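Internal ticket #5521
Category: modeling
Description: The requester needs a full-assembly model to guide mutagenesis choices. All entity lines are attached below as received. Residue total reported by intake: 531.
Assigned to: D.W.
Attached entities:
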Amino acid sequence: MIDFFKLNGFVCDESTAAADISAWNSFSHLPLISKIEEAFALRFSFVEVTDFQTLGDIADSIAQKTSAV
Amino acid sequence: MLLEALYFVVVLALSLLFYYRTKYPLHVLFFASLFFIAYMQWCAILLLLGNAIFAFYWGRLISTSAKRKQALFVFGVSILLLELIIFKVLLLEDGAWTGSAAPKLMLTLGLSFYTLQHMAYFFDIKIGRIQPEEKAGYYILSAAYFPKLLCGPVITYQNAKKALFNAPIFKIENLVSGANRFAFGAFKKLVLADRLAPMSAAVFEGSYPLHGFTALFGGLLFTLQVYFDFSGYIDMALGISRMFGINLPENFALPLRATSITHFWRRWHMTLMQWLSAYVYYPFSYYFRKSALLSALIGIVLTLFFSAFWHGIGLTFLLWGACHMLYLSIELLAQQRQIEIPKALGWFLTIVAVSFANVFFRAGDLQVVYKLTTDIFSLNTFWPHNWLAGFVAVIAKGGELNDLFNCALAALLVLLFLLFEARLNAIANSDKFNVSWLFSLLLLIAVLGVFSDGEQFIYARF
């Protein structure tokens, strides 16, 4: 996340939302998701992608998918 | 006008009284909504009910047919789009800006807004985000709810359900904050928007050629007019709804202070942009997400194409959409290359770019577009040599004394308003009874309001 948005010195946690990072907008949301999919070798459904509100939501979904494998 | 206002206040007061006193508050909302539509144009009830019943049953059909889900969804959306096209073409033939479209316009009361709700409903059922509503009455009420019917805000069924279907709890604070917000909206519409209307009309419906600056300034005047008109309506809608204890979503967040077009669209007609983002941008861009640039560009083009179509069928609206496609694409490329400009310059460029695009939005036909853009791009004659004749007299319709007075008054009021807008918004949203606020607004409306021309709400045309 820090690398993707080039946020030097920014501290993010599970509650970090798009509203906290100005560069996290409609244009960057999907490429961000794509990078995460590549990094963890998994795939998010359309509903998951559009329902993600915070980093915690994304982390929970990754944990769920990786533990199921 | 006075009689209409009195009639509306009496109906609203009775609806509130019954809403809080009866065991069937949703029935009261339903009949109040039908009463409101019938008062505007009784035929519109048929179209609204027909659409809502179709959406209700079609939604159930989509959810129950596992194999044909996609086909049923596409067919349902196609029917709604076809209907929208038919009515928009009828409006276009009558000339949406001239006012002659009034009878047909009233027939389609709120059509563009509730159609968006139905399409989102089909989509959310198709992807399994929601279950179809069990009770037809609930679904119809969510579409017919009168404060949002005419000009929004755009709302999805699940949000309408959360907002509307709660047991009413009477709180005096809701009445007070609703009245504060309603009076604020009435001031924006009757004093600011309707005072700006003759000035922008003078540019768009006057004689040509104009100096480029005057033509571009016409775009700014229209931008201000549509902002006060539309946000004024939204304030009134949210104010009335708040009196019933029902909170509708906000639609504007100081858009004229945006420092980029991307920011502008996050602050202007927010509920439409959220709808477009959820139901046009993401569904298409999702499949191209591996390429950041391609997914964003495809999303931008499709979103603004749909937005232009939703506002009206015609090349002028397409050109308006194309302007914003270009602006957003440029900003996207600048963002990717991490190019930043000073905020003050960003604000200035945003205002100029929005005003220029609104020349196409307001022009009405291609002849006017051609004349105005030729004027704007004629660099030799861009600045008026004689400001009194080439600028003031144009926007003041020839420069009669009362028109000059209107221009000066409108300029003063708009500047003061924009300067203190954030503070005024805070007072309008307060739930404290503020006699001086309400009295000042009512006095300003009574003294400075425009009541004679019967200007319609601009977004009721769409």
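Resolution: model delivered.
Comment from assignee: The CA atoms of residues 30 and 46 of chain A lie 10 Å apart.
Ticket closed.
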